[in-house]
């Protein structure tokens, strides 16, 4: 996917907000139709049937008919896709879209281009033997930095060609999606980037992800995901405090929360940018990239507990969860996999942080502190995260849980949840520096 910031004129922005509203309305209608379904009832209408119903609805409702038919139909298409992918996408059943939160719409290209098969021969219709014509988005490059795209009802809308080399072409895509969040417009083209070819060295790298150091590499390098600065964090709490104290429904309250949202969006943007750069670097420099296998969903589970059995250290755990999610672990793994298909492996994580990378001895007391590792067996000293990364690079750590009966002294048996855990810092959460 290629995403760029869009700069519409005020008139264009107004028209695009109308598109967003119509797309959301149609999507929510589809959600409602499918939510109505129960076992025993006739099936909810599919895409083709919904399109017929949309045509009818457009005829009956003047305001809907005044909107763009393509935008509304694409909302149905998006819904059908989301519905089909509900088991594989990770998002589950498609749900309601809300005003201000889910502002966006999809546009299908209006240009017609001949389609080709994988071997380069023109794609022909099986029945009529005619050339199949596919859709393509109409994009014009203005100069090195700017391009424009045709949006229905708005004419040419400009967007900035960020993060592209000199002479780079705007992407060829069949559709694009326009989104509006935190007062900014973005355009995302639906394209799958070409995989980055592997270097000839075939070098293997292991990556250990953590909260203190985002990614420790097995060659000793440490990479850190950019966070908000102390000043920006202070600004967030200031605006949050002011907004909380402002009168209900006042413009001050809305403006305060908008400022908070913009600062948080800045953090997310930095994290995404960092993940893109690092994943490209990994795919370009190493033949095989090994990540330790993490279940981030389980790791960030809340400690809240139930009403009868309230959990302990709930706020602390919430802080740690925020710290984990602020590292972009999942995104880094996914984007590396996208850019280097078949060259990324997941190594099971247990004991990667407790195993000595020099002699293979596993002992809890080898890990002196968060940063220090000193093997009690051979005396090898190393940064604890680098040591773990070397284990990951070697594909080690994924050995079965050592049993007490196995004999060899010095192996820490997993007696309870806390016995073989990494040493935890006294205070965990978003780092202060
Ligand atoms: Zn050792």
UniProtKB/TrEMBL annotation:
Transposase putative helix-turn-helix domain residues are 3-35
Query: InterPro entries attached here?
Result: Cas12f1-like_TNB, Transposase, Transposase_put_HTH
Q: Which GO terms describe its biological process?
A: DNA recombination; transposition
Where is the Probable transposase IS891/IS1136/IS1341 domain positioned along the sequence?
195-302
Q: Which Pfam families match?
A: Cas12f1-like_TNB (PF07282), HTH_OrfB_IS605 (PF12323), OrfB_IS605 (PF01385)
- Keyword Flavoprotein assigned to the entry: answer is no
Q: Which UniProt keywords apply?
A: DNA recombination, DNA-binding, Metal-binding, Transposition, Zinc
* Region of interest (Disordered), residue spans: 400-425
Locate the Cas12f1-like TNB domain: which residues?
339-392
A molecular function (GO) term:
DNA binding
Q: Which family does it belong to?
A: In the C-terminal section; belongs to the transposase 35 family.
**What is the official name of this protein in its record?**
Transposase
